[in-house]
Write a structure and sequence with these properties.
This protein is α+β, with helices and mostly antiparallel strands. The chain is built from 2 helices and 6 strands, in the order E-H-E-E-E-E-E-H. Helices cover about 25% and strands about 20% of the residues. Strand 2 and strand 3 form a beta hairpin. The structure holds zinc ion.
């Protein structure tokens, strides 16, 4: 199952992910869309952040190699939460 989250909006929470798992019994993959519905980052099988597709300037990124083997930097959940906190400040 794919869940779309948007710039400036809430990220998929662990509780939300668990609820979807219980309801549908399938893994959930988050796709992060910007305000133009372009895909800056997407979640992989390792569920360890979202791999940057394009953009994501201004976010703090994780550059260690992901468990899935994809070398693309990852946008971490914490970075998205920092984005939200910045919008509220
Ligand atoms: Zn990965």
């Amino acid at each position: 199952m794919v869940v779309f989250t948007y710039a400036g909006c809430a990220v998929l929470s662990p509780l939300g992910r668990e609820a979807l798992w219980k309801a549908f019994g399938v893994p959930v993959f988050e796709q992060y869309l910007n305000s133009k519905n372009k895909l800056p980052a997407t979640e992989c099988d390792a569920h360890s952040g979202l791999h940057v597709v394009s953009g994501c300037e201004g976010f703090r990124l994780e550059h260690d190699i992901c468990a899935c083997g994809n070398p693309a930097p990852r946008l971490m959940r914490e970075s998205r939460l920092e984005e939200l906190a910045g919008l509220l400040a």
